[in-house]
């Protein structure tokens, strides 16, 4: 089942829309996001996401120079 997570403009500007869902080797859903996104998410949205395994990576150089994220 899929659901939509509503994010604020601030969250969108801080790469919160640049995350994705993958399955680990045991079939569990994992959300991949950048450190910047994790720090920008509202507490309410983080609580929603905590039903998944969250994998955070610091890709600040890519976000600042390359224009991308996770």
Secondary structure blueprint with pairings:
Layout: H1 9-13, E1 20-23, E2 29-34, H2 35-40, H3 43-49, E3 53-57, H4 60-66
Parallel strand pairs: 2-3
Antiparallel strand pairs: 1-2
Descriptive overview:
The protein has one domain (9-58). Helices cover 36% and strands 21% of the residues. It contains 4 helices and 3 strands; from the N terminus they run αββααβα.
Number of E strands: 3
Low-confidence stretches: none
- Strands of the largest sheet, in order across it? 1-2-3
Which band does the percent of strand residues land in? Answer: 15-25%
Question: In the residues, how many domains can be counted?
Answer: 1
Shape: globular
Write down the overall mean pLDDT: 87
Give the H and E element order.
Answer: HEEHHEH
Structure classification: alpha+beta
Helical amount: 25-40%
Largest sheet: 3 strands, mixed
How many helical stretches? 4
Cα-based radius of gyration, to the nearest Å: 12 Å
Give a brief description.
This protein is α+β, with helices and mostly antiparallel strands and 70 residues long. The protein has helices spanning 9-13, 35-40, 43-49, 60-66, and strands at 20-23, 29-34, 53-57.
């Amino acid at each position: 089942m899929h659901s939509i997570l509503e994010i604020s403009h601030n969250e969108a500007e801080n790469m919160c829309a640049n995350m994705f869902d993958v399955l680990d080797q045991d079939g569990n859903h994992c959300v991949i996001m950048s450190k910047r996104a994790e720090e920008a998410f509202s507490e309410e949205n983080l609580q929603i996401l905590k039903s998944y395994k969250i994998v955070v990576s610091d890709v600040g150089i890519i976000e600042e120079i390359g224009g991308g994220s996770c």
